[in-house]
């Protein structure tokens, strides 16, 4: 039997034969649409405007050291001044919990006793302190280690935390804040993998499930590989657990693990207040028809199509399943102080994945033998159908262009309450 190390080495050789070096420059990766994080302690990617057509941003995570490493799918606005503290009665820039509860018709209560796990690489030394600042600002109940609401562990379930990393710390802040916004009464379990390698991240997913989490968010991705179904899908095959994965921030194209048949792949939208309908908010695809930025989508090359997906333009797994706000131009208020200066506006499908995990938690415990990714397909009429926008050019067009019913960038749509996420 071939070892996983041999498989990873083969991936590197295959990329080399294609003319892809093991270490790419950040500029090259930005143009190519993929930035992944390297080993623990790697420096953040340069603050280069790459992620939004309308606002200057930079991606939070470092460039990859070699294949097999994942990128966090978070981007930060660089035109919004960071602030450690706010003036009296001032509000942070970006959307807050009340905005998201309004836009997605979410209950203000619910989820008590449910645990949402966040899986990320590297350590955020300030995670609990920054979470406290976010929740205090918005009047959410305290979520601390002392009161049993917050827990941070390494991928082995202990406290031997990995090396800190500024990029992944920003990702962690975004994740825990978005779970808080969706489900203020939920407990949060942060599991920190020792590196951004898929095997370490996968071990962290397994750890989260072992520790009892029924909802696990993964805000990272990398290029698909032919070995994914055999080598990596095992990390996400957990019946009775809702596992969400961000679809990517590089526009049309498929990332793994969003391509896994066992996860809910979460795309992204631009969310704006206003409009003529009763909802009071409007949404479109995050991205442009030119491609290269925005929510990821498309047809997997390798992963099998789950039985609940019925679209006919893709014989394998289609990405995404559902969506939520991700555009940094309509981004989220996040508090992050590890090598950052407090209040920021972040976006990316790293925002939508933990948010949807929180919505699943509001909806209630999944059936013990279920794959909860199937639930929205049984309740599509309980979602907001996003019908405008595109994240690139493709054929068939629904894989990259929104329309009535299912489409790649936003899946079946965005939450309208929690009914679509119930068993």
Automatic annotation (TrEMBL):
This is Peptidase S8. Residues 1-42 form the signal peptide. The keyword Hydrolase applies. Residues 94-423 form the Peptidase S53 domain. It comes from Streptomyces albospinus. InterPro entries: Peptidase_S8/S53_dom_sf, Peptidase_S8_Ser-AS, Peptidase_S8_subtilisin-rel, Sedolisin_dom, Tripeptidyl-peptidase_I. Keywords: Hydrolase, Protease, Serine protease, Signal.
């Amino acid at each position: 039997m071939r070892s996983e190390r041999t498989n990873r080495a083969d991936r590197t050789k295959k990329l080399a034969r294609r003319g892809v070096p093991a270490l790419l420059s950040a500029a090259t990766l930005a143009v190519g649409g993929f930035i992944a994080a390297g080993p623990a302690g790697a420096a953040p990617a340069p603050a280069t405007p790459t992620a939004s057509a309308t606002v200057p941003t930079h991606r939070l995570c470092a460039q990859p050291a070699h294949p097999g490493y994942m990128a966090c799918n978070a981007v930060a606005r660089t035109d919004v001044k960071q602030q450690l503290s706010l003036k009296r009665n001032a509000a942070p820039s970006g959307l807050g919990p009340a905005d998201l509860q309004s836009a997605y018709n979410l209950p203000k209560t619910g989820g008590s006793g449910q645990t949402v796990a966040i899986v990320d690489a590297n350590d955020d030394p300030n995670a609990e302190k920054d979470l406290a600042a976010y929740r205090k600002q918005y009047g959410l109940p305290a979520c601390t280690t002392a009161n049993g609401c917050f827990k941070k562990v390494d991928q082995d379930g202990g406290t031997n935390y990995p090396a800190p990393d500024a990029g992944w710390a920003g990702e962690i802040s975004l994740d825990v804040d978005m779970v808080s916004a969706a489900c203020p009464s939920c407990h949060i379990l942060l599991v920190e993998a020792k590196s951004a390698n898929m095997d370490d991240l996968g071990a962290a997913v397994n750890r989260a499930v072992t520790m009892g989490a029924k909802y696990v968010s993964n805000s990272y991705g990398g290029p698909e590989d032919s070995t994914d179904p055999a080598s990596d899908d095992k990390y996400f095959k957990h019946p009775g657990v809702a596992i969400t994965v961000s679809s990517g921030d590089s526009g049309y194209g498929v990332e793994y693990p969003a391509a896994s048949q066992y996860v809910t792949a979460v795309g992204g939208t631009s969310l704006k207040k206003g409009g003529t309908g009763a909802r009071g908010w409007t949404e479109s695809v995050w991205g442009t028809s030119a491609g290269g930025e925005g929510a990821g989508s498309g047809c997997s090359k390798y992963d099998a199509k789950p039985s609940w997906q019925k679209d006919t333009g893709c014989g394998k797994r289609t990405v995404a399943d559902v969506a939520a706000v991700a555009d940094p131009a309509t981004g989220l208020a996040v508090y992050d102080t590890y090598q950052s200066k407090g209040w920021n506006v972040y976006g990316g499908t790293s925002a939508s994945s933990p948010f949807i995990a929180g919505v699943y938690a509001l909806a209630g415990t999944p059936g013990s033998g279920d794959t909860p990714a199937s639930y929205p397909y049984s309740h599509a009429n309980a979602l907001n159908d996003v019908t405008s926008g595109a994240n690139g050019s493709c054929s068939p067009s629904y894989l990259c262009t929104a329309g009535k019913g299912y489409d790649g960038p936003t899946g079946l749509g965005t939450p309208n309450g929690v009914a679509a996420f119930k068993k």
